[in-house]
Prior knowledge:
With about 80 residues, this protein is an all-alpha fold. The chain has helices at about 5-10, 15-30, 40-50, 60-75.
Amino acid sequence: MLSQDLKAQVLKLTPSDRLALISVIIESLQDTTVTQPDRSGAIRRMRGLLKTEQPAPNDEEVATMLEERLVEKYLQ
């Protein structure tokens, strides 16, 4: 049944029947369990995307990269 047909059928119901229908719909929604997304799996996949064969930069290398970026951003 199309949504317009369903709406037309509902509007033909008496107000008490509409309230009963609402009650049934709410009960059916409360009985369903809402599943939480599997965030741990997504996090594992994202970590896999970030993996490289190169070692992480040390503090001096990071400071140099930041300085180069600031020079590039503000002095050029």
